[in-house]
Structure formats: C-alpha cells, structure tokens
Amino acid sequence: MVTGASSGIGAAIARELGLAGANVSVNYSGHPEGASQVVQEITASGGRALAFKADVSQPSEVQAMFLAARDAFGTLDILVNNAGVQRDAPFLEMTLEQWNRVLEINLTGAFLCAQEAARKFVRRGICPERSCVAGKIIFVSSVHEVIPWAGHVNYAASKGGLMLLMKSIAQELGPLRIRVNSIAPGAIKTPINRPAWETPEAEAKLLGLVPVKRVGEAQDIAKAAVWLASEDASYVHGVTLFVDGGMTLYPAFALGG
Ligand code: NAP
What we know:
Shape: globular
Strand content: 5-15%
Strand order of the largest sheet: 3-4-5-6
CATH superfamily: NAD(P)-binding Rossmann-like Domain
Bound molecules: NADP nicotinamide-adenine-dinucleotide phosphate
Number of strands: 6
CATH class: Alpha Beta
Distance between the termini: 43 Å
C-alpha cells in the first residue's frame, strides 16, 4: 500500500514496487486520473495494482481502504506512508486552517495508516515465504524533519513530528517483528515544489542547497524505498535514510561558515 500514489514520489514508489513483484494498492485522494495512470503502467509491465480513494486524514476512509485492499489482495506486507501536502505562509499570516490541514494529512494521516497496517501485521503474523518480519512501514518524511524551514512552519512541524512518530513506533513495534523506517527526500522534481525548479533561475538557486548539484528525481526515492522494503534491509530499523544529494550537509558552511 502506497499512500498519495497518484503523483510524484508516491507514484514512482508504486511503479517500482510493482516492478519488484509487489501487488500494489495505489491510494489517492483528489486525482483519480493520476492513480489510474499508475495502475495502468504497473499492469502494463506485468504487475498487479488497484487504485483506492481515501483521504488519509479521515479514520473511516482509511479503515475502509485497508479493508478493500485486503479483500482485493488477501493480505498486506508493506505500507509506504507517503501522502503529504504543503500550505505555505509566513508564520505571522498562517491561518489555523493551513496549520491544521498540513498536520492532519502529513502527521495524523501517517499515524492512522501506520496503526491500521500494524494491527493487520500483528493479527496475521510472519509469512516466512515472503519475509522474516510480519510487516514493514516506511514513512516518506523530508530533510525538514531536521532542517528548520521559515515560511513553512506547518510542514516542518509535521515532518519533525513524523521523525519521532517513526522512531517511537519502531521502538514499540520492533519486538512485534514489524520493521519501521523513514526516507527523507531532499529537493525532488514533483508538482509539490514546481516553483522551486521549473525555471532555470529557480533551479540554479535551488542547486546552491544541493552539494551533488542535481535536483533529485522521484525515481531516486523509489529505488531507496524498494531496498528499504526488501529483505536486503532486514536489519535496518528505526532510522531515517536521507536521500537528498547532501542537502543535510548544510552546504552554506562549505566555504568556512
Ligand atoms: P505531489 O506530487 O504533490 O504528491 C502528493 C501526493 O499526496 C498526491 O498523490 C496526493 O494525492 C496525495 N495526497 C494529498 N493529500 C492527500 C490526502 N488527504 N489523502 C491521501 N493522499 C493525499 O508531491 P510529492 O513531492 O510526490 O510528495 C510526496 C511526499 O514526499 C510528501 O509527503 C512530501 O512531503 C514528501 N517530500 C517531497 C519532497 C520533494 O522535493 N518533492 C521533498 C521532501 C519530502 P491526490 O492528488 O490524489 O490528492
């Protein structure tokens, strides 16, 4: 199950999991056409996928989606908690609606889906033919789980919250044989941050923050997600994997600070 898989990073993760042999539940909220395109691509490449509509911030919709996915595919092995939004504003002007909506989707939505998945993993237990653990949860966080971000305090607070949600869940669910980790993307070319890369001037400015001098592609995150979900990562638990071209190296200090 990949949440927010109708666009950008989630769509790439869904496609890559499909190529790796997973049956993929493609969650979307507002864009069915994006979700059906992803389903078509996975199916065309020989995989199995279905689209499921749910606003991850709504408990009843999340429960219904997990039930429908289980009915379709029989079971659940991997959850990628990717759905996320930005509602940017200077702090002095940020409305409560902007604050609440970002926290509801990015943090509460991730909590609701992780809880639903973990309950299913515990109930079913380990299927040794598929994995040495009962299930895997991956959060798509952000470099802004550690880098403060003026003008985006709702987003940074949601991602900082995800970091300790992930680590605390990892502490609690490790003994239940559920593997929990995060991926923190840096600047990735998707619709969420189009103004930051769509003109040459904007991209040049953005590259000042990226030591490897390349804006990331959704595929960079998708490859990392497939590895983290695989048995090759079976001893990786409770960590954030930064896939950011070095953005968290604070490149502004490269010249001596
Ligand atoms: P995107 O292209 O805008 O995709 C966002 C996805 O989230 C869409 O599929 C959208 O689905 C879904 N979504 C939004 N609200 C939802 C809700 N209430 N319920 C279910 N799904 C919902 O953005 P993206 O860049 O791929 O972002 C994916 C994740 O990566 C986010 O968590 C973001 O914070 C994180 N991230 C991105 C970057 C970057 O540079 N792009 C960097 C760091 C972290 P619908 O359109 O169908 O509603």
